[in-house]
TrEMBL record:
Keywords carried by this UniProt record: Iron, Iron-sulfur, Metal-binding
Organism: Pontimicrobium aquaticum
Name this protein carries in UniProt: PA0069 family radical SAM protein
Keyword Metal-binding carried by entry: yes
Keyword Transmembrane helix appears in the UniProt entry: no
Top-level taxon of the source organism: Bacteria
C-alpha cells in the first residue's frame, strides 16, 4: 500500500469534522491556504496540546451488554495514537471538540484520577469488580510518558488488592512491569494488547503514533514470560485491509505467549464514517470504494452499526467469513489456552490499606 505524500504527517484523521452538537463550525478556506503558501507559512502547526480537566468521578459503569466489561476508567480523553477507525472519536464531541484532528491533538488530562480511584475503592459500599483501564482511550498513549497517571492508578490497585484490566497498543506498558508482576502474583491483572496488522506499512497508515507491530509482539512475549496473562485484540478487522491477516496474526500472537484472541469487525459510527471515508480516499484511493462497500455489506448497507449483539460481529457473507476465520484461528492456535478470571476476594480486607488486618 502506498499512501500519498499529501496526507497530514503523523495523524490518522486528515480533517476536523464539525461537532454535531454545535451550531457553528470552522473551516480553512482555499484563499487562506493560498495566502499561507505564498507567505511560506504553515496553516496548521499540527501540535498536540495537553489540557487539564477535573472530573468529579473517574470510574464509569458500562451499560452496553456486548462490551465484556462492567466498569472502565480513562485517565485521558482524546488519544494521540490517531487510529483513524477509533470508535472513541465520537466521545470527544461531548467535551466540545471535533472527532477528527482535535481527538488526536487536544488531549484532556485527568491528573486527579489516582485520588478519585482511591476514594472509590475505599467506599464501604464498593464491591470489587474488575475495572478496565482504557475502555475508551489508551491509558499508555504518549501523554503517559509525561504524566504517569496510569502508573499511579496501578499503584492504587496494588495497594488495595483490586483487580484491573488494561487495554493498550503501546509498549510503554513495560515501564510498569514491576507493578504488573506484583498484581499478577495475586491474580489481579489481565492485559489486552491490540495488534491490528503484521504489516508495518498498514500499521503506520492506520495507527500512525502507536508502537510498531514488532514492539507489540515483543511486549506480549515479555508480559507472558513474567506471568502476566495477555489477550490479544485483533481489532478492528477491516475488509480488504487486514482481513487476510487473521490466521498469521493469530499464529504470531500465540507463539508470543498470548492466551486468547478477540476481534471486532470495523464499524464507523457517528462522525467516524466521514473521517474514515476522507482518509481512505486520500491514503488508499485505488481501493477506497471497494473497502467502503465491503464494510457496508457487513452492516446492512451502511457504514455504522449500533445494534447490540450484531454491531461487533456484523452480518452477511464477508462478516461470516471473518468470524469463521477467527474461530478457526482459536481452534488451531489457542486450544487449551484461556485467560484467567481475576480475583475479587482480596480487596475487602485491604479496603483501608492494610489496617483491617490488625483489627481482628
Amino acid at each position: 500500500m502506498n499512501s500519498k505524500s499529501t496526507t497530514l504527517k503523523g495523524r490518522g484523521a486528515q480533517l476536523n469534522v464539525p461537532n454535531r452538537f454545535f451550531e457553528l463550525s470552522h473551516e480553512q478556506r482555499d484563499d487562506f491556504l493560498e495566502f499561507c503558501r505564498k507567505e511560506g507559512e504553515q496553516p496548521d502547526k499540527n501540535k498536540t496540546l495537553y489540557l487539564p480537566v477535573f472530573p468529579k468521578t473517574i470510574v464509569n459503569k458500562v451499560t452496553s451488554p456486548d462490551v465484556g466489561m462492567m466498569y472502565s476508567m480513562n485517565p485521558y480523553q482524546g488519544c494521540e495514537h490517531g487510529c483513524v477507525y477509533c470508535y472513541a472519536r465520537n466521545s470527544h464531541e461531548f467535551w466540545g471538540f471535533s472527532a477528527g484532528l482535535d481527538f488526536e491533538r487536544r488531549i484532556l488530562v485527568k491528573k486527579d484520577a489516582p485520588k478519585l480511584l482511591e476514594e472509590l475503592l475505599k467506599k464501604k459500599s464498593w464491591k470489587a469488580q474488575t475495572i478496565v483501564l482504557s475502555g475508551n482511550t489508551d491509558c499508555y498513549q504518549p501523554a503517559e510518558k509525561q504524566f504517569e497517571i496510569t502508573r499511579q492508578c496501578l499503584e492504587v490497585f496494588l495497594k488495595y488488592k483490586h483487580p484491573v484490566g488494561i487495554i493498550t497498543k503501546n509498549a510503554l506498558i513495560l515501564r510498569d512491569l514491576n507493578i504488573l508482576k506484583s498484581l499478577a502474583k495475586d491474580n489481579l491483572v489481565g492485559v489486552n494488547m491490540s495488534i491490528t496488522s503484521l504489516s508495518e506499512e498498514t500499521r503506520r497508515i492506520l495507527e500512525p503514533r502507536t508502537a510498531t507491530t514488532k514492539k507489540r509482539l515483543e511486549t506480549v512475549k515479555i508480559l507472558s514470560e513474567n506471568g502476566i496473562p495477555v489477550n490479544v485484540m485483533l481489532a478492528p478487522i477491516i475488509p480488504s485491509i487486514n482481513s487476510h491477516e487473521i490466521l498469521p496474526l493469530a499464529k504470531a500472537v500465540s507463539e508470543a505467549g498470548a492466551l486468547s484472541i478477540a476481534h471486532t469487525i470495523v464499524r464507523l459510527n457517528g462522525a467516524i464514517g466521514e473521517i474514515f471515508t476522507d482518509w481512505i480516499h486520500k491514503t488508499l484511493p485505488d481501493k477506497a470504494e471497494k473497502v467502503l462497500h465491503q464494510i457496508e455489506s457487513c452492516h446492512g448497507g451502511t457504514l455504522n452499526e449500533s445494534r447490540f449483539g450484531v454491531r461487533m460481529r456484523g452480518e452477511g457473507q464477508i462478516a461470516k467469513q471473518i468470524n469463521d476465520l477467527v474461530n478457526l484461528a482459536r481452534h488451531k492456535y489457542f486450544k487449551g489456552k484461556r485467560m484467567p478470571r481475576l480475583s475479587t476476594e482480596l480487596h475487602e480486607q485491604y479496603k483501608f490499606g492494610q489496617m483491617k488486618l490488625f483489627n481482628c
